[in-house]
Amino acid sequence: MTRRRVGNPLALAVLGCLLERPMHPYEISTTLRERGKEQSIKLNYGSLYSVVDSLHKHGLIQAQETSRDGRRPERTVYAITEAGQAEFEDWLAELLSTPTKEFTSLEAGLSLMPGLPPTQVATLLDTRAGHLREEIDRLEAMHAAARAQGLHELFLIESVYRLRLLSAELEFVADLARDLHSGSMPGVQAWQRVHELRSQGVSAEEIFADPVRHLGEEGRALLPPDRAN
Amino acid sequence: MTRRRVGNPLALAVLGCLLERPMHPYEISTTLRERGKEQSIKLNYGSLYSVVDSLHKHGLIQAQETSRDGRRPERTVYAITEAGQAEFEDWLAELLSTPTKEFTSLEAGLSLMPGLPPTQVATLLDTRAGHLREEIDRLEAMHAAARAQGLHELFLIESVYRLRLLSAELEFVADLARDLHSGSMPGVQAWQRVHELRSQGVSAEEIFADPVRHLGEEGRALLPPDRAN
DNA sequence: ACACGAATACTCTGCTTCGAGTAATCGAGT
DNA sequence: ACTCGATTACTCGAAGCAGAGTATTCGTGT
């Protein structure tokens, strides 16, 4: 598979617009904005113009006319090419059919969470849960309003998807916060203890050199597998 | 709030490593890899070294010693500074407590999905559902193996989170595929019709100029709100 | 004894991305 | 008539990021 010539999903949105009719870049940006696509696809001017250049360079779109109105900056109108149509269909199909690993910031945070004491993490997650509830309420209100206007589900589909993900995240975060607060989760005691020792000036190296001595039996889990007798 | 001096989450992972003890960049990379952090935080050499430079420039880490072994490239060992520790804690707290909008590729795909005919989209989503099931099975098997080794939940937490998100995605995708296949969803008929007309050479502009004529009553939903009598 | 692949430890270059900046015109009010 | 903010339409430069490339040494087998 030849790697996609232009990588930014914004390029796909550009092709999608030009499928309807030729436009100039600024018009594309306002069209995407009007239709609420900027909720789903990151749009900023810098990227837009460089993405358009790149599509042009690769023959996926072609310049139709450049006109200038008075002394205003000139506008170049682009049309999609056949290659561009093929690319659009192929790319969109791939996007829909093939999951790709995406790195979320919560996943990053979770993987480094031992860097803060468990009680603090629990509180931070409570805060997050609150934010998530607000966002979920906002989206649900929006959907209710849209449906009341007679707009059907299909036009909200990206947003419905987002709502599902947010709900899953909320459930996970609330559960984890609860388990951390209760202190009943295996390993949390040792984790807490590490932070107490460190705040007393014991270095991380020292603790990990002999975790069982510093942390008790729970520390055994911190030993590398080959030393875990 | 002064925007974060270094943005890449990899920088946070670097600070997290140096919190334990001073290391040189390559050692940081292998440490992260060993601990499976590269599953949660994108790691590549180019970024690593530029991120380390940037942390250094901003006084969050400091060079301790540069040694060269024979004729090998010299290694610079870095230690975290107090500013770096503060940044680590603050940043990690923010990551855990504050959801940020993230643009996923499926969301992009969904928002442009009218660009393909509904039956094709349904099939593509079936394919995605298959991939998702495989990935979910892989993760579940991994978790079972890890638990059998006596490793507790906390060490798998990022992965448990991922599993929850994947399950939510699968549920959504499978539901949507079903609804599209059945053709019972409001709007799908019109969507299908648009693609039939277009394959007969009718332009998108023409269809959208008078959707009710081309698509029947279902087309009314495509009119801009001000013209929707 | 030495050959060859894996591991060590970066460096370099070119593309992308971001966000601020620019500069003209339009429209609504005073 | 004029001013002031919004809209139109890009441009620019600095920074970030990806990934291939490079050079050395270690280890393992034959």
Task: Write structural notes for this entry.
The structure is a homodimer. With about 230 residues, chain A is mainly α. Helices cover about 60% and strands about 5% of the residues of chain A. Chain A has ten helices and two strands. Chain A has helices at about 10-20, 25-35, 45-55, 80-95, 105-110, 120-150, 155-180, 190-200, 205-210, 210-215, and strands spanning about 60-65, 75-80. Chain A has a two-stranded antiparallel ribbon. In chain A, helix 1 (about 10-20) crosses helix 2. Chain A is elongated, with a radius of gyration of 26 Å. The two termini of chain A are about 50 Å apart. The model of chain A has no long low-confidence stretch (mean pLDDT about 90). At the A-B interface, helix 1, helix 4, helix 5, helix 6 and helix 7 of A face helix 1, helix 4, helix 5, helix 6 and helix 7 of B. Chain A binds a DNA duplex (30 and 30 nucleotides) through helix 2 and helix 3.
Query: Spatial order of the strands in the main sheet of chain A?
Result: 1-2
Low-confidence segments of chain A, ≥5 residues, pLDDT <50?
A: none
Largest sheet of chain A: 2 strands, antiparallel
Alpha plus pi helix count of chain A: 10
H/E series of chain A = HHHEEHHHHHHH
Instruction: Give the integer mean of the pLDDT values of chain A.
Output: 91
Shape of chain A: elongated
> What percentage of residues of chain A falls in helices of 4 or more residues?
55-70%
Would you tell me the structural class of the helices and strands of chain A? mainly alpha
Strand content of chain A: 5-15%
Count of DSSP strands of chain A: 2
Q: So what's the oligomer here?
A: homodimer
Distance between the termini of chain A: 48 Å
Q: Tell me the Rg of chain A in angstroms.
A: 26 Å
